[in-house]
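dude i think i finally got it to work??
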Amino acid sequence: MQHPRVKFAFYSSIMRKNITPVLLEIFKDDLGLYNEFMFAIFDQQFCKAAPEITGEPFGTIRDLPKVWQSNDCKEFAEKNKLTF
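look at this
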């Protein structure tokens, strides 16, 4: 992960407050990696209800258009001169 061109985001269907401790545990040996290379956390706010697809009453799927339109992605793209 220690490469100047590597940045990453984490996507989960659970709430941010519940995924943050998991991420901090993963990076506990080097929180600098987390702080330097993690550019966004996309939580359940970036999912949309889709019980007809999942077959579950509260099933969700990723809402990728919402991800691409997020401020985190826009800022990352602008900073790195990317388009998507």
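The beta strands are 8-11, 38-42, 47-49, 60-62.
im so relieved honestly
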